[in-house]
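We treat protein structure as text, and this decision shapes the records that our systems exchange. We quote a single record here, exactly as it is kept in our systems:
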Amino acid sequence: MRAMINLNSISLLRSGKTLLEDTSTIIHHGQHVGLVGSNGCGKSSLLALLMGELHPDQGDISIDSGRGIAHMAQEVEALNQQAVEYVLDGDLKLRTIEQAIVDAEQKEQHGKLAELHEQLLQAEGYTARSRAEQLLHGLGFTHEQVTNNVRDFSGGWRMRLNLARTLMCPSDVLFLDEPTNHLDLDAIVWLEGFLKRYQGILIIISHDRDFLDEVINVTIHIENKKLNNYKGNYSAFERMRSERLQQQQAAFEKQQKQRAHMESFVERFRAKATKAKQAQSRLKALARLEDIAPAHVNSPFTFSFPAPEKMSSPLLTLDRAELGYGDKALLKLKLSILPGSRIGLLGANGAGKSTLMKTLANDMPLLAGERHDGEHLKVGYFAQHQLEELDPNASPFLHLQRMSPTAREQELRTFLGGFGFHGEKALETIEGFSGGEQARLALAIVAWQKPNLLLLDEPTNHLDLEMRHALTMALQLFEGAMVLVSHDRNLLRSTIDDLFLVHDGKMDYFEGDLDDYSRWLLEQKQEVKSESSDTSEGVVEHSAQGRKEQKRLAAERRKQLKPLKSKVEKLEKKLDKQQSEQGEIEEKLSDPTIYEGANKDRLKALLDQQTSMKKAVADIEEQWMEALEELEQMESDI
C-alpha cells in the first residue's frame, strides 16, 4: 500500500485563535514536504494534527500510512541503556520478534523458532545493529560513544539519539520538527543524504533553507489560515511567491525599492570580487537574494548593524597563539583580522571553533603567544550562553536603556521594532519569551553597541526563516569585520568571503566553497573507514608468509573495488561538469539586465535551463553519493 495523506476542509483553533480555516490538501507517496510560514501560523499544530495529538475543529484527515508512521520525540529519559540499544528500540517490530525468539528458546519451541528466524531475516534483523551504528556515526557519535549509557549524554546529544531512533523505525510516513537544531554542519550534510533517499512521505519543519532545498520537493506555506502548495524546494517557493507578490500593486513600490537596494549592493560587490571560489559563491548567493527579496517584503524584521564609529588596522592580531583550557592547548594559530574581513569557520564539533571565538572575544586568556588589540577595537560577541545572561525581569527596552541612559525613548523603540519588538512587546519582561525572541534581543544588544568586529557563534539557533533572512541582509551591509560560526550554509554563503577550517589543532585557509567542503567531509569519512578496515585486517605479522598473504589480500581488495571506484570517479567528473554548466547559467542570471522587460523570453529560457540543470545535478549527486556509500560498504565488508 502506497502512503497518502488527505486533509479535507480542515479548521483548527488553538487558545481562541484560528490557525487553519476550511483548507484542504493532498500529500502523495514519495513527496518530501517542507512546512513553512511565520512564527505562530500553525506549523507545529498542523504536525500535531497529522500525528493525532490534536483533532480538527472542522473537516477530517485520512492517512494511509503503509508500513507506519515515524516521528521524533522531543525529550529523552536519562536511561541506563546503551545508546545503540536505545536506537534499536526504534524498530518495534524487530524488538517484538527478538523477544518472541527469547520466549521460544526458553520453551524449546523449535518449530516456532525456525519461523521466527525467517521473520527476523525479513525484518533485516541480522543487519540491524550495524545499521543502528551507522546512523549514530552519521550523526556524529564516535565508535566508543555507541556503547555509552544514554544518561551520560547531554541534552543536545540525547536529541541526536532521538533522531537516530526515529530514523531506525521502518516507516512510509516520517514527521520531523526542526531535526537540525542540535546538529553541526557535518551531521546536517549526512542527514540530507539520508533523507533524500527516504522513499515515503516526509513532512518536515526547518528554519535551515539550504537543508530544505536539498531535502524537499514540495513546499506548503501556511498563510492567511490556508495551506498553499508550491511544487519544488524552498528556493523555488520563494521565487514563485516573489513573482506572485510582484503582481500585487499594493506591494509593488516597496518591492522595487528593496530590489534596487539589492541591485546596488550586488554591483558594488561584483566590482571587487576576486576569482576565489568562495567569493564567486557569495556573488551567486547575492544574486539569489536580490531575486527573492520581494518574497520577504512583509517580513516583521528590518534592521541593520550601525556603522562603526572608528576603525583601526589591524583590528585584532594573535601571534604564535596557543588556545585551550587549563594547561591543555587545543589550537595553535596566527591570525590577523583587518577592517572588512569576513571570515567563516568550518570544522567538526570539539575542533576548537567556539574556543577560538571565546578567545577573540577576550573571554578566555591565551595559554601562550601574544594578543594585540587595535586602538579602536570594539567587539560585538553573540553566543548561545549569552541568552542565559539576559535579565528575565527586564524588558527589551530596559536592556537597551541600561546601556544608554541618555538615549531617546523613540530611538530605542524604533531600533527594537526592527527586531520584532513592537509596541507593548518592547516593554514586557522577557521571562516568558521564547528562545527565538531571546536570541533576537541578544542580537539587538550586540547591534546597539556599534561594534567594528562582530563575533557570531551560531547566531541562527532559535531563529525562524524570516529572521534569518533579515540577519543575512543586515550582515551583507555591515561595514566592520566579522567572524562567523554557523551550520546555516545560506548565511555563510551569503555573508562570508574567506573560509577557514579548524582541525587537528590548527586553522587552515580552506580553498573552495561550501560545496567543496561537503565533498571533503565525505572523503574524510571514506578515509577513516579505510584506515579502520586496514588496522583490523588480522594478518600474520613479522613473518614472510604473513607479508605475502597481506599483499595478496590487498591486491584482491583493489581488484574488487576497482569497478566501483571507477564509477565514483566518472560520476564525480560528470558532477563537476554539470555544476560548472549550472554555474554559467547562474552567472547569466546574476546580471541585473536580464530582468528587464526586453529580456523576458531569455530570462524564461534561462530559468527553465536552471531548473533542468538543478534536477540533473541533484540526480547525479544522488547517484554519486549512493556509489560512494556502496564503495564504503564494500570496503567495510572486505
